[in-house]
Backbone:
């Protein structure tokens, strides 16, 4: 490759230089006469891969069922466990059990799941987005002790 202006042999890469509106391959010295053209930038791939927007709805939301305290207590008593027994089994303080059973404290999701597994009961209802109607339709599990207590009360 020779310089298009001075005809000198170019060592290495020629420099693309714009002179009088035409781009020429020239040597380093001659590139001073025109405007050096930069190599067109290669479109770089973004290093951060964008995840496609999820078409799924929002994450399911769990809610502790009504009468969770009565459900837990009934199940515990049916097994002949004291509150201390239950507390020990789920690695919680007895005071936590007291508060949960008297419904002064809702168990958090983690604790509720632990109790569900241990006692084989349902304490959590899953809400998916705004499809709250589904729970009425599909989540009916028959009358619970809580329901009966409520009927008596009214
Ligand atoms: Zn030259």
Residues:
């Amino acid at each position: 490759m020779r310089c298009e202006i001075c005809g000198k042999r170019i060592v290495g890469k020629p420099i693309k230089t714009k002179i009088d509106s035409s781009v020429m391959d020239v040597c380093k010295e001659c590139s001073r006469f025109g405007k050096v053209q930069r190599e067109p930038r290669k479109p770089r791939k973004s290093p951060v891969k964008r995840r496609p927007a999820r078409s799924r709805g929002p994450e399911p939301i769990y809610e502790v069922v009504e009468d969770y305290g009565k459900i837990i207590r009934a199940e515990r008593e049916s097994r002949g466990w004291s509150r201390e027994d239950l507390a020990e089994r789920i690695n919680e303080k007895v005071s936590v059990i007291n508060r949960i059973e008297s419904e002064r404290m809702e168990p958090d999701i983690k604790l509720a799941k632990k109790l569900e597994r241990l006692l084989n009961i349902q304490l959590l209802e899953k809400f998916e987005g705004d499809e709250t109607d589904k729970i009425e339709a599909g989540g009916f599990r028959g009358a619970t002790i809580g329901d009966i207590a409520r009927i008596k009360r009214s």
